[in-house]
């Protein structure tokens, strides 16, 4: 399987000319049909340097974002359950050789406690994260942990969707993972540039480049519906990674009829005991980072894009406008971090945005976005290809906006102070009147919102 043709991507990047403004505008006109872009057009956008033209690219990305996702932003929190790891990725604090890091795999009781903390903050989705060495019962530990998270019930609800970011599995193990009711299986290629990948991952299970590259094929083969890909930006040329990710997406679409549910765009951040993380070999400037977010938005408009708290408040604000559809907030990157309450140095990397979920929600609302805690599609089985078949002709929107408003209303009732609550409900009422289309749907949503305000929970379309 030739999932990514690294040589061809390298030569195309070398041969790419600085584009004429007329060529860039021609590509942007095509991009604004929101049907995605071929690689030649992506190459053109990646090569834009002129500040004025770059602003035009950003305007097109903003338009794509608004057209397809409206102003909704979905929230999640990472839940680090273990930092035990047998690999030695030189950029990561969890690598085996880092003897300065206190090691810990949470017990099921501790996972329950962490889950309670997240529910009390207002979260409804978590991304379970682990290093690649499980305590004595192996993968059973991951399965038990997922069950534990789903089992926790508090007065203000429960976690409704557990996504996982764990090391690549075999098809058989993915089948078992699927039975635990996960949402998305997420795994980052780190770098698609094979020589760089091999140089950085010399030992342990992660040394096998193809095993990692083919992981999403195995997950989809095993019946996992939603997969999330990503590259760790800073390890190799960012333009190479963008083109390779698009090649990966094309491969999955051709083979399975559906691409990844999400793309993540983590940038390398300082990590305890990692020289490399402090001086990334291919550091990506803020401007290039925003350019890559905008380009991906235009190239694959229907694939969700995730931004974590690795990024600063200022970059997060800009990236939301340019195409990000999901963000984490209030994150801790060390096992047990939510219960401990502080932000220790011993996380997986240092976070750029340490605000609480409440602070991020208030800020995002102020910026004109609607915070969403929706998990409706996953729970109604609108996943994988079924989801994309509804999303591409624009049919999913009739569900997404009402569900975003309903879950935001829940958040306001259960977790917000009076000021945020007033502003939030005013926005919800305005959105119902102006954005929920059709009098039938509008009156249905009004009725459902009334039920939420009177205490009913977990209602969705
Ligand atoms: N251990 C599994 C693996 O490597 O696939 C899954 C979890 S790992 C903790 C999650 C991701 O964190 C990695 O795939 C990597 O991209 C990212 N990461 C590692 N070190 C980082 C750093 N210094 N800055 C930002 N992200 C980092
Ligand atoms: Fe381990 Fe994953 Fe960190 Fe590599 S990135 S050291 S595999 S936790």
Task: Provide a quick synopsis of the model.
Helices cover 49% and strands 9% of the residues.
Walk me through the structure.
There is one protein chain. The protein has 461 residues and is of the alpha/beta class. Helices cover 49% and strands 9% of the residues. The protein contains 21 helices and nine strands. The protein has an eight-stranded parallel β-barrel, surrounded by five helices. Helix 11 links the parallel strand 5 (226-230) and strand 6 (262-264). The radius of gyration is 21 Å and the shape is globular. The relative contact order is 0.13. The structure holds S-adenosylmethionine and iron/sulfur cluster. Residues 91-92, 94, 129, 131-132, 165-167, 187-188, 190, 232, 266, 268-269, 271, 277, 310, 348-349 line the site of S-adenosylmethionine.
Largest sheet, spatial ordering of strands: 1-2-3-4-5-6-7-8
**Domains (count):** 2
Q: What is the typical, i.e. mean, pLDDT?
A: 93
CATH architectural arrangement of the largest domain: Alpha-Beta Barrel
Name of the level-1 CATH class of the largest domain: Alpha Beta
Question: How would a textbook summarize the main sheet?
Answer: 8 strands, parallel, barrel
Radius of gyration: 21 Å
How many helix segments?
A: 21
Count of distinct strands: 9
Helix percentage range? 40-55%
Q: Please give the alpha-carbon distance between the first and last residues.
A: 40 Å
Strand content: 5-15%
Q: By CATH's scheme, which homologous superfamily of the largest domain applies?
A: Aldolase class I
């Amino acid at each position: 399987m030739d999932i990514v043709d690294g040589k061809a991507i390298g030569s195309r990047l070398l041969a790419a000319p600085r584009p004429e403004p007329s060529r860039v505008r021609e590509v942007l006109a095509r991009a604004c049909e929101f049907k995605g872009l071929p690689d030649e057009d992506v190459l053109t956008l990646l090569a834009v340097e002129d500040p004025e033209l770059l602003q035009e690219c950003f305007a097109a990305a903003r338009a794509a974002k608004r057209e397809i996702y409206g102003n909704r932003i979905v929230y999640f929190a990472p839940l680090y359950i273990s930092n035990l790891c047998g690999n030695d990725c030189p950029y990561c604090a969890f690598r085996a050789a880092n003897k300065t890091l206190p090691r810990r795999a949470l017990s099921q009781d501790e996972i329950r406690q962490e889950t309670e903390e997240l529910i009390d903050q207002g979260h409804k989705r978590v991304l379970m994260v682990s290093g690649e060495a499980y305590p004595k019962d192996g993968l059973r530990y991951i399965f038990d942990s997922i069950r534990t998270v789903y089992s926790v019930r508090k007065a203000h609800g429960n976690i409704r969707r557990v996504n996982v970011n764990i090391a690549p599995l075999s098809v058989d193990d993915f089948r078992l993972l699927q039975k635990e009711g996960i949402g998305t299986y997420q795994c980052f290629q780190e770098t698609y540039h094979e020589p760089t990948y091999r140089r950085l991952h010399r030992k342990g299970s992660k040394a096998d480049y193809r095993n990692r590259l083919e992981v999403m094929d195995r997950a989809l083969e095993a019946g996992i519906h939603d997969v999330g890909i990503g590259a760790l930006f800073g390890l190799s040329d960012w333009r190479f990674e963008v083109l390779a990710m698009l090649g990966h997406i094309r491969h999955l679409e051709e083979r399975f009829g559906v691409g990844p549910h999400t793309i993540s765009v983590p940038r390398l951040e300082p990590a305890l005991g990692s020289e490399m993380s402090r001086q990334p070999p291919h550091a990506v400037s803020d401007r290039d980072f925003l350019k890559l977010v905008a380009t991906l938005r235009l190239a694959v408009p229907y694939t969700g894009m995730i931004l974590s708290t690795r990024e600063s408040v200022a970059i997060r604000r800009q990236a939301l406008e340019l195409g990000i559809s999901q963000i984490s907030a209030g994150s801790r990157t060390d096992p047990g971090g939510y219960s401990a309450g502080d932000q220790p140095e011993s996380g997986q990397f240092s976070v750029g945005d340490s605000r609480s979920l409440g602070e991020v929600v208030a800020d995002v609302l102020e910026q004109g976005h609607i915070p969403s805690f929706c998990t409706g599609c996953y729970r109604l089985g609108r996943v994988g290809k079924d989801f994309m078949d509804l999303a591409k002709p624009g049919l999913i929107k009739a569900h997404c906006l009402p569900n975003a408003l309903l879950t935001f209303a829940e958040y306001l009732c259960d977790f917000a102070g009076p000021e945020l609550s007033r502003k939030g409900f005013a926005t919800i009422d305005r959105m119902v009147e102006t954005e929920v289309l059709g009098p039938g749907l509008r009156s249905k949503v009004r009725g459902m919102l009334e039920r939420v305000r009177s205490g009913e929970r977990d209602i969705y379309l």
